[in-house]
Amino acid sequence: MTLITRTRYQYGSLKPKMRSSGEMMWEFRYYETDAKGGRQRRTATVGSLADYPTESAVRKSSDVQALLLRINVEAAKPGTPPPTFGEVLARYEKEEMPERYSTSSSYRSMLKTHIRPRWAATPLAAMKTLAIEDWLKGLALAPKTKSHLRSLMHTIFQCARRWELIEKNPVELVRVRGGSKRLKTPRVLTPEEFCLLPPLLKEPYRTQVWIAGCLGLRVSEIMPLKWSDLDFDNRTLLVQRSMVHGKGADVKTEYARDHVPLDPALIEILLAHRKRYHRTEEDWLFANPTTDRPYHQDPIQQKHIRKAARKCGLGDGIGWHTFRHSYRSWLDDTGAPTTVQKELMRHASIQTTMNVYGKAMTDTKRQAHSKVVELILKPTKPAVAEGKAKLQRALEA
C-alpha cells in the first residue's frame, strides 16, 4: 500500500524581535521543504511594530500574504482557505513587479487606486470574465487607461497560472471598448508656435526644449544625457538611458536605444551650452547645481514651460510630450518616408540598426532630421517676422 501524505496548510507564526539597532521588528516563522524532502525552519522579517502594532495588522500586510501564498502552493486544497486576489497581488508586487521605475510606479498606482479596492477581498476562483469586463466598463476613465488596467490584470493572472493557482486566465476574453484610443487629440504645435517658447525660457531649460523639439526625444531621455553620449565629429547622439523623477533606468524599449543624427545648427546650441557650464565628458548635460544630479522634469514643465506657453498665447496643456507629438507632425511636413519617421521616433517594429551603434546615419535620416531643424531654427523670413511680432506683443502684455 502506498501511503499518500498531504502537505498541511501553514499559517506561520509571528514574534516580535529586537534588531541590533534597537528597533522592534516582526519575525515570521515557517517551514520549507528542502531538496531531499525534509522540512527546514525559515524566518523572514516582515515589518516593524511601529508600522504594525498588532499581530492581526501584520498578518494583513502584503509581505505576510505573499509569503503565505508562496509557501502554501503545495498545500492540500480540501479544508484550506482559498487564496484571495489580494494575496495574489501581494505576491505579484513582491516577486514580479518590473524593475523599471516608471513602469513599477504606474503599476503600483493602478493597483492602489483601482484594482486592490475592488478585488483584493475577492476569492481568486470568483474572478470571472464578465464581472471584470463590467467593472472596467463602469470606470469613468479613458479607454486607453482601461486598456492598461486590463493588461495589468492579465499579467497578474498569468502569474497565478504559473503558480498553479488557476487553470485559465479570466481576462483573456475581457473586451475594452475603444481599445487604446485617446479621448483627446494630442496637441501639436506649428514650427512658428514652437519658436515662441525658447526665448521665454532661461537656461538650461531653453536648451532642453530645443533638444525636445529638434530630436523628438522623450523627456526621460533628455534629462540623463551625458556629454559622452554626443559625438560631434560624426554628428550623432546616442540615447542609452532613461530617468524619471531622479530614478535611473534603461531606455523604454529596445527600439529606443539608438543613435540619432545631429544637425550642425543644433550642435551650435549644444556647444554654446557646454561652454556656458564648463562640463567634462562624463558630466550630465543638465546637472542641477543644487544636487549635481539631473533635473526632475515635472517642475520644469509646470513652472517654466507652461508659464511661457501661456505668456506667448499658446494656452494651457503644453508639456514635454507636446514636443514629441509635434516632432512627428513636422516629419510628416518634410515628406520623410514613414520608415524613416519610425526610426527617428525610435518606437517602430521594423528592422533597424538598434544594436550596431557604430554605423553611420543614413542620408535619408539626416535629411529628414535636418529639415525639421530647418523648420524651427531657420524659418522663412515671413515666419520670423510674424514670430517676432507675436513675441513682442506677448512681452508687452
Task: Describe the protein.
There is one protein chain. With 397 residues, the chain is mainly alpha-helical. It folds into three domains: 1-81, no CATH class; 100-184, DNA polymerase, domain 1; 191-396, hpI Integrase, Chain A (Orthogonal Bundle). It contains 15 helices and eight strands. It has helices spanning 55-59, 62-71, 85-95, 101-119, 129-138, 143-162, 191-194, 205-215, 219-222, 264-277, 297-311, 320-334, 338-345, 363-377, 381-396; strands at 13-18, 24-33, 39-48, 230-231, 236-239, 242-244, 247-249, 258-261. It has a three-stranded antiparallel β-sheet, with helices on one face. Strands 4-5-8 form a three-stranded antiparallel β-sheet. Strands 6-7 form a two-stranded antiparallel sheet. The longest helix is centred in the middle third of the chain and has 20 residues, at 143-162. Residues 1-6 and 348-361 have low confidence and may be disordered.
